[in-house]
Every structure is written in structure tokens, then in C-alpha cells.
Design goal:
This protein is of the alpha/beta class. About 35% of the residues lie in helices and about 25% in strands. The strands form two sheets. Strands 4-3-2-5-6 form a five-stranded mixed β-sheet, with helices on both faces. It has a two-stranded antiparallel sheet with strand order 1-7. β2 and β3 form a beta hairpin. α1 runs parallel beside α3. It holds the Pfam family RVT_3. InterPro entries: RNase_H-like (IPR053151), RNase_H-like_dom_plant (IPR044730), RNaseH-like_sf (IPR012337), RNaseH_domain (IPR002156), RNaseH_sf (IPR036397). It comes from Thalictrum thalictroides.
């Protein structure tokens, strides 16, 4: 018939874990969310063993996903400073945030105000920033979506919010997530 059929290559799924920060660093996982033009962010701070220190969600009203990711980073770093946490490993699933933080690409003009605030805040902190897959960032993703749903700022009660606690305990015990790669 003249039709050639070639099976697409199959990629093996990846096993993803939450990453413990090095040494005396605390991990700050942050994420942004945008739905119907409304933006929110969330984040969780944990020690090197994955134990919960603090969490937050913030509602930013109208905005883009990039605004939400940026402001979630700012809110998380501000919380670290308030808590006296100086050694921070930021973990984000936004490669743009990582590249903006490392000055690898130009920051869009409408986000520069927020990035000036981030850079000012980081003078007081020792920061590492790493990109992680979204599967390793589910706790922060959950919190950012909570900000969208509630349309307010706040934090979840670690012991009362069952879904959040499940995500945190899974990360603490290195229970893997499966990432199915696209061809």
C-alpha cells in the first residue's frame, strides 16, 4: 500500500523524588498557579530531613503564571527571612524562574519590580536554586492551587489538612512519583 509504519520510540518513565537540601540548608519549594486570569502562589519550607517548618499560599488577583511563580519565590524568601532561615535551597519547577534568578535570560519588564525585591532579599540569605520536575514539587503545587481556590492568603494546618500531610509524608519518606516522558 505504500504506507510505512514505524513504531514511535518508547521512553522509560522516570522515577522522581523530592530532593533533600544539602547540609544545614532548608528547602523552599515554591510554585505559582494561574486560572482564568487569576494568579496565586504557594510554598513550603522544610529541613534537610523533609520535616515541615512552615507553609504559605498567597492570592495575587489578576496575573500570569510567570507573575505567580515570581511572587511565590518572593513570598517564600520573605518567610525564610522572617523565620531566621539563612541557608536556603530553592526548589522550583519553573525553569524560567531559575534562569531569571541566575541572570541567564532577561527578566520581562513587567516582572522587574518583583525581581528587584527578590535580589534585595537575597543579600541577607545564602541561596542555592535548582530546577526540579513538577512531580517533585506537588506540595507547593497543592498550596498554590489552594490560594486560587480560597482567593486569599494563608497557610494550611499541617496536621489537619490530610492531602497536604500525605504529600509531605510521601516526600519525607522518599516515596517516588512516576514521570511519563513525552517523545
Amino acid at each position: 500500500m505504500g504506507i510505512r509504519h514505524k513504531d514511535p520510540p518508547i521512553q522509560a518513565p522516570k522515577i522522581i523524588y523530592w530532593h533533600s537540601p544539602p547540609g544545614n540548608f532548608a528547602a523552599l519549594n515554591v510554585d505559582g498557579a494561574c486560572q482564568n486570569g487569576m494568579a496565586a502562589g504557594g510554598g513550603v519550607i522544610r529541613n534537610a530531613y523533609g520535616l515541615h517548618i512552615a507553609n504559605f499560599f498567597s492570592f495575587y488577583e489578576e496575573g500570569t503564571n510567570n507573575l505567580a511563580e515570581t511572587r511565590a519565590l518572593l513570598d517564600g524568601l520573605a518567610m525564610c527571612e522572617e523565620l531566621g532561615i539563612e541557608l536556603v535551597q530553592v526548589q522550583t519547577d519553573s525553569m524560567l524562574v531559575v534562569k531569571w534568578f541566575l541572570n541567564l535570560i532577561e527578566i520581562p519588564w513587567h516582572l522587574r519590580l518583583w525581581w528587584r525585591k527578590i535580589k534585595t532579599l537575597t543579600r541577607c540569605l545564602s541561596i542555592q536554586i535548582i530546577h526540579i520536575y513538577r512531580e517533585g514539587n506537588y506540595a507547593a503545587d497543592y498550596l498554590s492551587k489552594k490560594g486560587i481556590t480560597i482567593a486569599s492568603n494563608g497557610a494550611v494546618n499541617y496536621n489537619m489538612d490530610i492531602k497536604f500531610k500525605q504529600l509531605m509524608v510521601a516526600d519525607e519518606h522518599k516515596i517516588p512519583y512516576i514521570r511519563h516522558c513525552k517523545n
